[in-house]
Design goal:
Homeodomain-like_sf; Tetracycline Repressor, domain 2; HTH-type_TetR-like_transc_reg; 11 helices; TetR family transcriptional regulator; single chain; 200 residues; Arc Repressor Mutant, subunit A; globular
Length: 200
């Protein structure tokens, strides 16, 4: 076997090199511009490829960010769709149940593994509010059509973030070991008030 015939090792196929190039460009765009201002076209321009090449691997900027953060399997939009498939009454409980279902599954294990590193990086940490606002809380509050949407979103975020912290990241019993349905039943009414109730 000649040197030309020998299999080459340590080098990614051209397609994978382009994918990595796109992710590098996406990371730079997100860090410089923030989640809301980034577009697939802008990432493509920075990577030196056409937008169709970016969409070959990533459906949109949501998928670009989750891949950049290392949590590509996570699809918050699917969870939000399920949460919104029902009446306004009980929306808070469905949101809590949906979030816990996401974190308790295989996708959640990936998030729990990666999240400490993301939180330790100021640039990446700064992307989370825009991402969560645009992809999770924004669609829910928009569906409700209530006043003070920004304030309500931040209150819901504080409740959910505190729940995830004390259930998964710094587990505190009995909350950490409660069945998800029980947690949703107990915490859901607070989230419901933040979403649609009287904040006076």
């Amino acid at each position: 076997m000649t040197d030309d015939d020998a299999p080459r090792r340590g080098r990614r196929p051209a397609g994978q090199e382009t994918r990595a190039q796109v992710l590098d460009a996406a990371r730079a765009e997100f860090l410089e511009r923030g989640y809301d201002a980034v577009s697939v076209r802008g990432v493509a321009r920075r990577a030196g490829v056409d937008p169709g090449t970016v969409r070959h691997w990533f459906a949109g900027k949501r998928e670009l960010l989750t891949a950049t953060l290392g949590i590509a399997p996570v699809d918050p939009a699917a969870m939000v769709h399920q949460v919104l498939a029902g009446p306004v009454e009980g929306l808070g409980e469905r949101l809590v149940r949906g979030v816990l279902g996401l974190w308790d599954g295989d996708e959640g294990a990936t998030v729990r593994l990666v999240l400490p590193a993301v939180m330790a990086d100021p640039g990446l940490r700064g992307l989370l509010p825009g991402f969560l606002g645009a992809e999770v809380l924004g669609p829910i509050v928009e569906r409700l059509g209530v006043a003070d949407a920004r304030r309500r979103s931040s209150l819901v975020a504080s409740q959910v973030a505190g729940l995830l912290l004390t259930r998964y990241l710094v587990p505190i019993d009995p909350l950490a070991s409660m069945p998800a349905d029980e947690v949703a039943r107990l915490v859901g009414p607070n989230v419901q008030r933040y979403l649609a109730g009287d904040l006076a």
